[in-house]
Specification:
14-stranded antiparallel beta barrel; about 10% helix; mainly beta; 14 strands; Porin; globular; single chain
């Protein structure tokens, strides 16, 4: 109960936490690799770096659930749908952190385009909503996030992402708090056919310093993956597993926060088409 009271107090009093949960890396693979996501491709790139969904060639949809510190009040849920077209890839997504008494919600509409092997670009428009029950009402904002990726060589991919680049504000709040600007830059490197490493740096204008992340992925058996990672500011250790079938990918992860304890994550992505 003491931990729960502390978490709720922090959430209600710190606007930086609002924005942090609006842009947390999504997906079991990213969760297992220290939060590395800016240079990754696939469905969840829609929310981590929308440029990474430019190469999707099948209709895809996914669900993601995170149980933070084994408290139902801090559950994180996400869903996404992507539709590739000859003009680019379209996507819609939804995230929710919290419970019926307090929740942070994000609705996204994304578009990504592949301009050849060396340049992919993506944009997502966001509607953000904080619900604080009947007593404190609601706060909302509209903003956007932008990302690019470049396949520099057959083994090296770079990614850059920015959330809220023009610093929009939360409306209906007492002080109309500014949303933070969040910037990420990172790389993914294919050491061998079975072994991938990723690293990235994140700067959040509402936090002191930067967050450094690193992760490794090893295909131990065909379509079966082992993953591990680390993150600083805050200090988090991660590990996880993944399995890919023809039409579905299942990824699970666990994280150990240096102060708040353990969290678990699981995600599933379904793909339809040839």
């Amino acid at each position: 109960m003491k931990k729960l009271f502390l978490l709720i107090t922090l959430i209600l009093s710190t606007s930086a936490l609002f924005a942090h949960d609006f842009i947390s890396p999504i997906g079991g693979r990213a969760a297992a690799m220290g939060g590395c996501s800016v240079a990754s491709r696939g469905l969840w790139a829609m929310q981590n770096n929308p440029a990474g969904m430019a190469n999707l060639d099948k209709f895809s949809f996914g669900l993601y659930y995170e149980n933070r510190w084994f408290l139902p009040e801090t559950a994180y849920k996400s869903g996404a749908i992507a539709l590739p077209t000859k003009f680019g890839c379209l996507g819609v997504s939804f995230n929710q952190f919290g419970s019926s008494k307090y929740s942070e919600n994000k609705f996204g509409l994304a578009y990504a385009k592949d301009f050849g092997p060396y340049f992919q670009m993506g944009l997502q428009l966001d509607y953000l909503l904080i619900s604080q029950g009947d007593t404190y009402g609601r706060q909302s904002a509209v903003t956007f996030e932008l990302g690019i990726q470049s396949q520099v060589t057959n083994k090296l991919r770079l990614g850059t992402y920015i959330f809220n680049p023009v610093s929009f504000r939360l409306q209906q709040s007492l002080n109309q708090e500014k949303l933070p600007i969040v910037f990420r830059f990172g790389a993914a490197y294919q050491f061998t056919k079975d072994f991938v490493g990723q690293c990235e740096i994140e700067k959040n204008t509402e936090r002191e310093g930067v967050s450094l992340r690193g992760g490794l992925e090893y295909e131990a058996l065909k379509n079966f993956y082992l993953r591990a990672g680390v993150q600083s500011n805050p200090g988090i250790l991660t590990f996880g597993l993944g399995y890919a079938l023809r039409f579905v990918k299942i990824n699970a992860a666990a994280q150990l926060h240096q102060e708040l304890g353990a969290s678990i994550q699981i995600g599933m992505v379904f793909s339809i088409g040839k």
